[in-house]
Records
---
Amino acid sequence: MEKVKKYLHRYFIDAMGAMALGLFASLLIGTIFGTVYKYTGLEFLNVIATFAKAATGMAIGVAIAHRLGAHPLVMFSCAAVGAMSNAMGAIVAKEGGAILKWAATASDGSGIFYAAGPAGAFFAVIIACEIGQLVSKKTKVDILVTPVVTLIVGFAASWLVCPLVSYVMYYLGMFVSMATTLQPLIMGIVLSVVMGVILTLPISSAAICAMIFSEAAYGVALLNGTSEGFLLAGGACVAGCCAQMVGFAVISFRENGWGGIVSQGLGTSMLQMGNIVRKPVIWVAPTLAAAVTGPISTMVFKLKCQGVAAGMGTCGLVGPIGVIDATKEPNAMMWVGLVLVCIVLPAVLSFVFNEIMRKLGWIKTGDMKIDA
């Protein structure tokens, strides 16, 4: 059991967290540059955005390999593995969703090309990295053996895994977009609460959102006529993540002061995980706030988002920037909604819920103190 826990932690916490950093340093930062370019017209920002986004797979490959403690040759080879697995996938039939071609790299018009994206890169890079480590520094011709083995294993893993991953993500994205289109109130609550909780847990909400709300998933939603629901689902995720980060920043102000506001409000609510384990009730206020702001996002302000930004919340203000980027024509309603849903309501609601629990004696000063 201990070994199982060790590997689960290694792959689904350590590796996934590293994948989120790789996404942040490429796709996400590229999105930010692209958004700034849209409003400034500075062409060099567009160039940076284009190349940063193009390097997504490579950044994921290096980030995961580095976190897994890979030797240099394995790590550098994983850049190529990340690039190929991020791009590989399958051509899915426009009707019925059956896989028409395995490990395709482009559509021939017979169906929808659905890349495995970050999800495919996650699995393929882990496999290639672990096998590459087995041969690394074991021979006198390591400079040839290690890259060859890592790349061949990486290709094989991509060929076998990526179409399956793309198939799963195809249906997951379709479900989220259709469900949100049909039931924006319920899905607003569910997505906001679930994604907010994931953001606070030692799991990468950014990586998960990058998988679910990918460009390929959006393309499928467009064909199915559910693109509005797809983008609203991303907006609900932003609302939930912001509720956790802003909520914890505000309700723990007594203990952590302005440093806590910055570290949690612009950093991560994951800093409270140790306190949550000791006293789970402190998690109630921001989670309830997420349950309120999610449906307000989907039903009232109709905030939209897609990609990795949907799982970032107010970390570096990436979530709000993602909403701006996903809105074709930002208007006053969007700006008001953005401020209310991402900042004001999470702060006010979390504070009110928390004060009620303090009055009841469920929470005491010191329960949310962050260790320096």
---
Amino acid sequence: MGANKILIADDEQVVHESLGIYLKAEGFETIDVFDGQQAIDALSSEVALCVLDIMMPNMSGIDACKEIRRTSKVPIIMLTAKGEEIDRILGLELGADDYIVKPFSPREVVARIKAVLRRTNEQKAGDSDAIVHDGLVIDIKSYTVTLDNHPVICTPKEIEILYLLASNPGHVFTREQLLNKVWGYDYAGETRTVDTHIKRIRAKLDNTGKNWSIKTIYGVGYKFEVE
């Protein structure tokens, strides 16, 4: 099945060497590429997860992430040497599952890879049937959203946020809780990415005449409200 293949896109050979040693020791195979376009070309159904460096020649990791997300829901971890908030937030908004700032410990990267894969696999195996609310259908197993039988194109993170909210109507989630539950880590000070995701979800869903809505609870967070 090749479900243990990790695609690593980074223009530094030392990154491939250091990560390769630790990943292979954990039973993973690696596919090594050196720019964003090569990452897109190398992507296949056998790839379990992508590690994308943000700064690469020919095509950046951000552009590669954007292109991959057009056709694939494969988990993505971004690497950034800058450590700048804008890079991390942009990566997350485009659908990345996690980010790691260089310099990093290879052990940490492997641990984060395993955590993302575990969370993804648990979600696929454990989630119940699709959530349905007045014309809105959110199927987390197939990662699809439809509204009045029309497909709504959403990123994986938008679907996960929407599924979480709609699965708990009336429950108020703080931005920090949404970050922790959807991304699996505490992104201190970066809760703006939640606001951006919610804004995009609302823009894609026309709830005119529907009995549901995504409400902002000012100073707290968000909830999915059903009348």
---
Amino acid sequence: MIKIYENYSTQDILNREINGYEREEAAVKAILADVAARGDDAVREYNKKFDGSDVYNLEVTAKEFDDAERALDAEYKQIILSAIQNISLFHKRQVKSGFEIKKDGGVVLGQKYTPIQRAGVYVPGGTASYPSTVLMDIIPAKIAGVSEIIMVTPVKADGAVKPEILFAAKAAGATRVFKTGGAQAIAALAYGTQTIPKADKIVGPGNIYVQLAKKQVYGIAGIDMVAGPSEILVIADGTANPAYVAADLLSQAEHDVLATAVLVTNSKTLALEVQKEVEKALAVLPRQSVARKSIDTNGKIILCGSIEKAIEISNEIAPEHLEVCVDEPFKYLDKIKNAGSIFLGKYTPEALGDYYAGSNHTLPTGGSAKFSSPLSVDDFVKKSSYIYYTKEELEKASYNVMAFAESEGLGGHARSVGIRVGKE
């Protein structure tokens, strides 16, 4: 049963320990080294070992894409296309342009944006398939102008990628799709193999082995984030519908036994009613066993004196998903400082953001919303600055630059200026 806390300490009640995976880290390190050394052969062996897949040809063929499209009914395909439209509308507003400053004397300073050349997208395919993740990770890359978008996803013994995954990948703009998952897929994207191209940046969610692999290859390739288990925090007052709140808590609890679902409220009556509603809803939830363990281990209801205090608690926790289930949610929006994605009002369940509304669902977890952001177009572009000086303007600046360099003991820096203006 979900526990109620009247005196809270976020350190005591939230388990966000990211260490203690020494065995898994060692296993991942070995897989990375093996794939780097042997390429496709190592990928195939790990696919068979971990997923039961004995597929030799790792790349999805044109026929498989066509078969996937034919396998889906028209209504489902239209849902995918509608979601693409919404997600694209939101992410197109994130596109930035550079700037240029022209100063007297011909000095030019500027900044330009350049998309990365090749993005690697990891899409989980273990206990469930996630076409929504396909859309959320490929569309921002496509809008950013990435020329090659390489997707990897695990398959089982039959060697087939689920048709909804392939349809979403093609519709969103994936360049190529490969049948591999786990740490071996991250290794393939980081180092490149005979078949799978090396990616400049790797994005997407996954299990602990995927996340540890992303962490270890950072520097060889860029990564979006090291994502932990899913989280939801609901702020609600006594006017909230307890059945709605319970449903939203369980919407994240069903993801993973390590997922965290938290309600912060100023109403003890609501707390007790939500506690009962969670039990009622659990009884009929398809993923009951997963959600039950998540709720019993990590579920929390925190009582506090006001909604303002609830927001303070939320800002300290910095949740991945934050719902504000009150009648006038916008009056609290500016007070919310730390959250991955914010869902305002009583009719905005987190599931809207997962699938359809348009904002991204690849979000910072584990409190990292204090310093990081949802996946966006920004993750697929680089910024470069540029400078132009005339000889005359360099002469004007030379004394200050040379003095600064000498103060740091870097005479070579100073000389690189002086030699141009006759001040050696």
---
Amino acid sequence: MLTVAYDGTAYSGWQIQPGRETIEGILNRCISELTGETVEVIGASRTDSGVHAMGNIAVFDTECSIPAEKFSYALNRRLPEDIRVQGSQEVSAAFHPRHCESRKTYEYRIYNAPFAMPSKRLYAYFTYTPLDTELMRQAAAYLAGEHDFKSFCSVDTQALTTVRRVDSVEVREEELAAGREIVIRVAGRGFLYNMVRIIAGTLMEVGRGKLPPGRVKDILEACDRQKAGPTAPACGLTLVGYEFLE
């Protein structure tokens, strides 16, 4: 099992796509070259194009003699500098990261200032419109718990059910020299396609004063994607942690 961090800017997401560079594709290529085997990893989270990760999980089978804990060192010599394995360990042959009870934590970062900051452009969404974080916190409180999140899911989803459990949604702000960064931190047992980015887009509409906080409850109950806010751009989203609960 690998814990994988990456800057998703240059990639078309996690999952292999014909003619496109993806995180999964590069891992498969590098591991296969290292082991001399044809290896295909299984990822815990199929992050979208432009989304970053500090701790996505990938597993694979191998008969290679390299000790499990040394795979991280060997792979990092082959991987591009925007992908790094943070740790490697042996797991049961029956282990499948998407079939285990787990909690994922995402952060969506918003750079809120009069002018954009070039060094933030790849890792935070910029808006010069002031955002009321207290209103955003009030709205976020409606999202915790088990709900039907159909309103917060892309219409292209292939999920069998849109019911998900969100453990927490927090909104905090960090003061910077030339503005502030607002962080929306969402932890849950599973997420739908674009769910966190739609949550972020909706909370920003509340922060701008375009929606009252209580409207989020109505949006949940409507089960209608058109009722929620826009899908926030991918650059602000990072998968920061993955915890197995079994």
